[in-house]
Design a protein that fits this description.
By secondary structure, this protein is α+β, with helices and mostly antiparallel strands. It is built from three helices and twelve strands; from the N terminus they run βαβββββββαββββα.
């Protein structure tokens, strides 16, 4: 009987998608957790058009985060900045870097209907994940994150695609999330086999799921490089 490859849990607290709205008051904190789990589902890999190289990078020419711990580099969209710097931005555990829109917290963090708004992308690393397990690991991790970020909500898988990043095996999953309070969110998670010893991930969340920042989050993940 085979067992799932080890994948350490992420830390108990991590930066939220910039603003928590009602959830901040309920949780009593400005941080929430994202959890990656190790259980496997049925394996199977597809094919996808997304392979990042050269001019295909949707954020070509933009400043980039170079995350030496994960071996990843990814673009910073216009109007975004690193959020893991400084006394209030430090990350713990498996999270190693993060970005989000600039200027958040100075205006309202809800739309006209009272639903939360915001976006974030976080990077981190795990133990190696064999290529046949990338699909199942990514799907389960995406659902687990959706359940933690939105414990009263539900999620529906929109995409589950095998891809490559600089020729390295990867898998990405996108979920449409209902937050349980009438709002929506978009969650995308990509696992990337950086080398024989490391698997890294990028996790992106945009609220609401119909906002322009949904595409921005996807662009950040699509800009990933292992160079």
């Amino acid at each position: 009987m085979t067992t799932a490859p080890p994948m350490p849990p992420l830390p108990p607290q991590a930066p939220a998608p910039q603003s928590q709205g009602r959830r901040r008051a309920r949780a009593g904190t400005t941080t929430i957790a994202a959890v990656l789990v190790t259980a496997l589902l049925a394996a199977g890999l597809g094919a996808w058009w997304w392979t990042r190289s050269g001019d295909e990078d949707p954020l070509a020419g933009r400043p980039r985060v170079t995350d030496a711990k994960t071996g990843l580099s990814y673009g910073i969209p216009e109007g975004w900045k690193r959020t893991d710097k400084g006394k209030k931005g430090g990350l713990i555990g498996a999270f190693t870097s993060s970005i989000g829109p600039s200027g958040k917290g100075k205006g309202k963090d809800e739309d006209e209907a009272g639903h939360e708004t915001g976006a974030t992308v976080l990077a981190g690393q795990s133990a190696p994940v064999p290529e046949p397990a990338l699909k199942s690991q990514t799907e389960r991790a995406a659902r687990s994150n959706a359940e933690f970020f939105f414990p009263d909500g539900s999620s529906r898988r929109e995409e589950s695609k095998a891809t490559t990043v600089d020729g390295r095996p990867a898998h990405t999953v996108a979920l449409a999330v209902k937050d349980g309070e009438g709002g929506t969110a978009h969650l995308r998670l990509t696992l990337i086999t950086v080398d024989d010893k490391r698997t890294a991930f990028l996790l992106g969340i945009a609220m609401p799921g119909t906002s322009a920042e949904k595409q921005t989050v996807d662009d950040v993940l699509a800009s990933a490089s292992t160079g």
